[in-house]
Amino acid sequence: MSGKTIDKKLLAGVGISLCFMVLLFRKIDFDKVLEAFRAMDYRYLLPVVFLTFVSYYLRAVRWKYLLLPIKRTVMANLFPATIIGYMANNILPARLGEFVRAYVLGQKEEIETSAVFATLVVDRLFDGFTVLLILLITFFTVKLPAGMENVQDGLKMGGYVTLGVYLVVLAFLFLLKKRTMRTIHVVGVLLRPFPAKVSEKVIPLLGSFISGIRLSSRPSEILILLFTSFAVWATCIWPLHLILQSFNITLPITASMLIMVFLVFAVMVPASPGYVGTYHAACVYGLMAFNISKEQSLSVALVMHGTGFFPVIVAGFYYLWRDKVSLKKISENSGQRRN
After folding, report:
1. How many whole angstroms separate alpha carbon 203 and alpha carbon 188?
2. How far apart are CA 274 and CA 302, in angstroms?
3. How far apart are CA 191 and CA 53, in angstroms?
4. Is 248 helix (H, G, I), strand (E, B) or coil?
5. Residues 283, 264: Cα–Cα separation, whole Å
6. Residue 7 pLDDT class (50, 70, 90 cuts)
7. Is the dihedral of CA 260, 25, 278, 93 positive or negative?
């Protein structure tokens, strides 16, 4: 990817972030925001940050088991690489952190970066399926305040749609793995109405994708992958719930689950590094659906973003310094591999 292209995407992302920030801060009563911060119980921040790092550690554990078909790696390398990768996602454009993460571990464990990156694709698949399941549970169980019946019905309909998507994707991946050539042929037939260049890109991508998926066949290791996936997201949702309690906001855990799903979708929207604006908007408007004021919702969003953003940056730079690794060098190498 050229620097020019990155600059265009970065500028577009900054523009989107600014639009969301203007939308969030207009007609806001800053005195009420300050009042919310004064009333906050800051003792909750320590367990929030602790759980955030527990979540990253669990991600490293899951990554260890995804890498088993390639090599038995050690946590002393996996955890720092995970932290550095997420730190890079927070400060670099175009989600380069995934490539940085793969590069760092590849160098430490002497594994080809492409092989490591293939495991991160599977890592994201586990995240995607877990989030879909959380979304499905939330849509059927969350209770919105009175007067939001239409939204509640919409959430239930969304639950049925999510369930359908979840089952279709699972079936497709199963067939792609077990009947690779036949499934790719069917995809090719379905793509015939589209321009030839679409098929020329999709078919090779599917082939390389499925060939890169290598999972352990041991039931115990598969169970660990599933357990760590749920544990990762439990330790993402729990900090949000604690932050709500720190602001004396009493909502069921399903509300925290719903807001977390909103945050997941928000970070997919092109924005400036650190997901500024989009992240905050998802949190604010998610909370406002539960009749929480805009000012208090914005306070929660700022704390939630800050506790997830700054500690991992500090830890990431510490590991870079400790291991004498150049972020500029690994981001350049990662960027070249994307071309």
Report:
1. 7
2. 12
3. 43
4. coil
5. 10
6. low
7. negative
| 118-177 tens-digit pLDDT | 888 889 888 988 988 888 888 778 887 777 767 767 767 776 777 787 788 778 877 877
List the one residue out of 113, 126, 15 whose CA is nearest residue 65.
126
| d(C-alpha 101, C-alpha 81), whole Å | 5
Whose tokens are 């169970």? That residue is: 223
**Whose structure tokens read 């949702």?**
237
Question: Tokens 């793969």, residue?
Answer: 102
| CA-based R_g, the chain, Å | 21
| 109 sits in which H/E element | helix 97-109
Side-chain-side CA neighbours of 176 within 13 Å: the count stands at 20
Domain ranges across the chain: 3-333
**What secondary structure letter does DSSP report for 43?**
G
pLDDT, greater one: 75 or 13: 75
- Our measurement of the distance from residue 210's CA atom to the centroid of its chain's CA atoms, rounded to an integer in Å, reads 22
The residue with tokens 């594994």 is 111
- Output the furthest CA–CA distance in the chain (Å, rounded): 63
- pLDDT confidence bin for 184, thresholds 50/70/90: confident
CB 283 within 8 Å of CB 259:
yes
H helix or E strand, kind and range, residue 155 = helix 149-178
Report DSSP state, residue 68.
T
DSSP, residue by residue, 263-277: HHHHTTS--STT-TT
d(CA 175, CA 179): 5
Q: Catalogue the E-assigned strands of 64-219.
A: none
What percentage of the chain reaches a pLDDT higher than 70?
91
- Name the band, by pLDDT with cuts 50, 70 and 90, for residue 304: very high
What pLDDT score was predicted for residue 95? 73
pTM (two decimals):
0.84
